[in-house]
Amino acid sequence: MKSDRYQRGLKKLIEMEGSMGKEVIRKMEEISPDFAQYLVEFVFGDIYSRPGLDLKTKEIITLSSMVTLGTAPLQVKVHVNTALNVGCTEQEIIEVMLQTIPSAGFAAAMNGLLIAKEVFDERKNK
Amino acid sequence: MKSDRYQRGLKKLIEMEGSMGKEVIRKMEEISPDFAQYLVEFVFGDIYSRPGLDLKTKEIITLSSMVTLGTAPLQVKVHVNTALNVGCTEQEIIEVMLQTIPSAGFAAAMNGLLIAKEVFDERKNK
Amino acid sequence: MKSDRYQRGLKKLIEMEGSMGKEVIRKMEEISPDFAQYLVEFVFGDIYSRPGLDLKTKEIITLSSMVTLGTAPLQVKVHVNTALNVGCTEQEIIEVMLQTIPSAGFAAAMNGLLIAKEVFDERKNK
Amino acid sequence: MKSDRYQRGLKKLIEMEGSMGKEVIRKMEEISPDFAQYLVEFVFGDIYSRPGLDLKTKEIITLSSMVTLGTAPLQVKVHVNTALNVGCTEQEIIEVMLQTIPSAGFAAAMNGLLIAKEVFDERKNK
Amino acid sequence: MKSDRYQRGLKKLIEMEGSMGKEVIRKMEEISPDFAQYLVEFVFGDIYSRPGLDLKTKEIITLSSMVTLGTAPLQVKVHVNTALNVGCTEQEIIEVMLQTIPSAGFAAAMNGLLIAKEVFDERKNK
Amino acid sequence: MKSDRYQRGLKKLIEMEGSMGKEVIRKMEEISPDFAQYLVEFVFGDIYSRPGLDLKTKEIITLSSMVTLGTAPLQVKVHVNTALNVGCTEQEIIEVMLQTIPSAGFAAAMNGLLIAKEVFDERKNK
Lengths: 126, 126, 126, 126, 126, 126
Hints:
mainly alpha, 83% helix, AhpD-like, 2 domains, homohexamer, 7 helices
């Protein structure tokens, strides 16, 4: 029996990421079911389910944070997709990357833009 | 004679940060006039003057990036102030910090919240 | 009504950090009650309450991670205290810092050692 | 004539990493023999040869530090192998990754888990 | 009509990086023409065009910074090439990497050396 | 009896940092004599004693790396002093900070410049 937080998180995850999100969860369940559960419950059931900011703004915050880290190309890819799913335009995602130049530097922003382009192209070719 | 980019950047800086921004520029001019010029021209004249995202969203991106870095408490303080100046509520700034927990960790978000509280209190006591 | 995870987390927090931990929670509740709740529920109720590793090993992992980040001096201070509370000796804490030199560099380890010394001295003078 | 520190370091390296460790040294000797020497002498002859913590605890510290960095996937892979060699179970390695979530974030821990899984599978298929 | 800063930057970029630099600009123009413009104008037209340090020293600073970041393998590759173009020897580049060990750690320096070797080999095989 | 590497390192440390360097070693010996020994032997006896780059270039590399880290203000302060001791001018140190803007971002460079200014002023007032 999954917790209410899990149910809420899974619903939010599917709303935001669709089958791609479910695939991430399935893959992580193979390695560590508890990690997968924390991801659904805490990240999606607690944090992304908060009121106060709309999903588009939340994805913009996540993209900015992950592009700044520079260590999470896989996750940037997922969140560029998610950002598009929740209503960001391609140009807005590019603007997020450009806005990180002053704080995170040109290399971080460039690597973010290269991943964004990859996602834009993949979605066009589907 | 200052460039057009400088004029545009200084106007944007004052619009966003008021006297606090001018004070930062004055302080940096003492150390390196060229750094101060790049800050005005590139960060404010080029990046913050871009169309495509409103100032509130730009400040949210900057806050997320700087809280994630964790190395810029001085700049987080300035940008919490700036975010309030351009229309963010205190609660929205807190939401930005909470939204960075999954990517940047609890310590980064906690340190961001502690600085935000400091700014909120300072503004109340003025 | 607090959740079971909160009850379990608070008990774990007090077991590990005593009044210092409660003070952190009280301070964060002033800024963001939800952050304080996530800290108790997720960090202490979920992660620190996991079986599989003893509390001493968990604190060693946390110290290594936070010394490597280099951005969380406040939290390193809390966790040096906590490590001592759950059975680490001062020498073991110093060994953790020395073991981070190859991966995190001399400056990170040195800053960790300086904080550890501060905590050791404070506890002696109480 | 190699120094005593080199002899001690090489013995420790082989004890911990076996042929994989020797291969890393051979590869680095091609690029910079001095780097290879520092790695053997300082990292293995000085740091990993210290008394005070057992090898298993040292590997746990290294894994926590490198997963937190997020910039060293190659080295995380080597050290997941080494951790298994010195007595960590797969489940304990997974616990290390989970314990880094609060400080290093979900993306760092997830990337650590993905590498751990890759190593676990490679060792099963040998 | 491109600005004077763009003209100066493009000339500096070609002086330093040749066709490889032009290829980077072309690629980034496809994703975000404004990013490409900032790269030419600000990074090459403003920063790399400054008097005060020779190009070799500037590339050494950039390599040290990017190896320390650890998040920019693509850019380290470009700048190892550029460093060789502006007069660094292979051995000097290796020395830069070794000099980052104390501050950035062995993993960062090792990853820098592995990329340097890759560039050295590619240039030999051309 | 101290090793040859220690003797060579201590001589190099004193050549570069004078009484300030000896004070750092004395302070670290109080916390962890082994850390102090590694610092003298490895950092100064091995790395800073290498031929191939002059001391001025080595300090420029260290400053770039530490400003990029952003987590070592204490060490940046020591190395700004050291850079001046080994022949860098104040303007050259400022140039190093400006050259890190593209890779490390404006906040990192600004924080480096603020520390540099502090050191310049202290040395003027002595």
